[in-house]
Description:
The protein is mainly alpha-helical. It has one helix at 2-53. The longest helix has 52 residues, at 2-53. The chain is rod-shaped and about 80 Å long. The model has no long low-confidence stretch (mean pLDDT 84).
Amino acid sequence: MKNDKFIILTSLFTLFLNSSILEAKERAGERSDRDSSLRHSNRKERERREKFRL
């Protein structure tokens, strides 16, 4: 009986840990997508300004 409870608790903890890791990876992915699109728009804006200076 003790082993069953231990196995169940360990399984629940593992599932929780895995879901937390997946959420963190997804958030990091969203952040990097947002950063790369921001860099792209900044570069476009810089190019547009340089074109007007000439």
